[in-house]
Amino acid sequence: MTTGAAPASFVSDAALKRLQKRKAADRRLKYYGLGAIGIALLLLATLVTSLIITGHTAFLQTHVTYPVYLDPAKIDAQDPDKGNYRSIVRDSFAALFPDVTGVREKRALSDILTSAAPYILRDKVVADPELIGETIDFTVPVSDPFDQFMKGNIKRETAEDDRRVTNQEIAWVDRLMADGRLSKPFNTGLLTNADSRFPEMAGLAGAITGSFFALLVCFLISFPTGIAAAVYLEEFAPKNKFTDLIEVNINNLAAVPSVVFGLLGLAVFLGTFGLPRSAPLVGGMTLALMTLPTIIITTRASLKAVPPSIREAALGIGASKHQVMMHHVVPLAMPGILTGTIIGLAQALGETAPLLLIGMNAFITSPPGGILDPSTALPTQIFIWADSPERGFVSRTSAAILVLLGFLIAMNAIAIYLRRKFERRW
Amino acid sequence: MKTAQAESQTATNGATMTPVEKASPQAAETHPVKMTARKVNVFYGAKQALFDVDLEIRDNAVTALIGPSGCGKSTFLRCLNRMNDVIDNCRVSGEIRLGDTNIYGAHIDPVLLRARVGMVFQKPNPFPKSIYENIAYGPRIHGMAERRAQMDEIVETSLRKAALWDEVKDRLQEPGTGLSGGQQQRLCIARAIAVNPEVILMDEPCSALDPIATARVEELIDELRENYTIVIVTHSMQQAARVSQRTAFFHLGNLVEEDETDQIFTNPRDKRTQDYITGRFG
What we know:
- The complex is a heterodimer.
- Chain A is mostly helical.
- Chain A is 62% helix and 4% strand.
- Chain A has two domains: 62-185, no CATH class; 205-422, MetI-like (MetI-like fold).
- The radius of gyration of chain A is 31 Å and the shape is extended.
- In chain B, 46% of the residues are buried.
- By secondary structure, chain B is of the alpha/beta class.
- Chain A: One of its GO terms (biological process) is phosphate ion transmembrane transport.
């Protein structure tokens, strides 16, 4: 195999020059990569930081605590549901400020409390009718402008005309503060309350429950269907034009924009089948359409990754095709299948457009009790709040995004954990 | 000397046991024909891999299939338990008999056939389950044990026959994949034995093993010959000479020559066989 050319030299000028060039190219490639990762991390950090900066205040909520006399004259002891709680709440609060007398001032004063305060008190009394006739320490959220003032989002230095709270109101708040009646505990309402018109009362319970039900429906539909379809395509389907067509279409399905699935859900599930609007059932079914191709594709990949030697081993001792699949291949592929499913569900959790189209962006003030009750979902709740003008909803929107991201990170972490734990090397 | 099942099989063999031409009279006495291949042709799509192969495989003997890579010896081996069925575009014509049944007959269930004709593969492929489960899986799917005690017995007997019992009896619940390569291969042999087959096919069973493990497996093959019919594909001529009683030489899809192993290695009739065993090609 002599070619006549001189053997390569390690030391000639040309060789050294080429070497330098090659090394420089290697270095450049490395730096491009580092640069790309740096930019990606920077963008992510910007996103999360800005969310935390706007959203962190929503995790705390200013509350005011004051004594309330539950006047038996104003509450029907037989049926505590009925009673003039509005007057009870206001009068007890006004009692803290005996110097305030004018009708307008009194109304402005009671506006410090959340408008939902009478209902909170009513629920408390209904739960424990023994309280009637007693004086209790009543803790309620303050209404949004005062909450924002306490969190520093409304500044004292701003000219009075430019801010939502007047000097008079600031004076009242200062007095409440001096009396130690204001507190800023963790905002449990954000997770336990459903949506509300009042930002200080609005929470994500409805959205979280709605998302949970929708994902449950989505999982129950797409997981068995996806695995069955993948097993058929991978192990049983004959190789012909028809199965090729199915394969191409499944891959295409994964690329269809989600809004199209939403329209499909609207037309078919709501229009043709007449299923209830805004229900997690329909949301889940629509999301299942989107998750299905992801599950089919990842399941097929995991089935392919099971080495043929295992199939042969099982066939060789006389296992039938279904025994090979159900006893060996599918269990071995399960970690991969689960990982794909969780990632598919995580995508579905963040999906907004299809849910908007089937009406899961309704204003609903109680968490759904089942899959047929109208409800919102986390991403649609974010959409609704982002649309609301109140200052309180701005920070709550960010907080809701953080909660959603938290769920997504948790789901992906589970997927990674499962993959690590059950990963097999052959 | 033989298992009950193998005995009953021999009984049904009567028809095919009529003497066919034998290379040596001694072989005819001790080794009746177990499987017969007649005019076997195999196609992968349009490509023909085997041409009119006629071969007799004798009971209680080790038949070695040798030949250069791509000569069709593994293809032929896989015809014997219809493992080729699972390959999409593979087509087999001709007739292969196990006893007096044509295994390519219309009423034959390949799944049951594979319980009677077991297989051991090139690379040890234990299931990623416990040693016990590896053995117990076959008997379980074929309903061979009703009670736990029976299963325990099958597992122990199979492992003993595969000369693995003493090495693993204290760790039956540990994963089979944790054993060494040679132990894994013997586990695979034990797994094949557990369903009580009549014939065991081995596709280069030692090619992934070191010499010491190879020696143990060869020793085992020699012991198993007492109770089973064994067909082994091997690339090693020495191995064929060591373990087999009969040898078949394949070349380019044709069965060139089949005879007593001694005869093949000392006095081959065909020029191609001679060239191959003397290392001139392959």
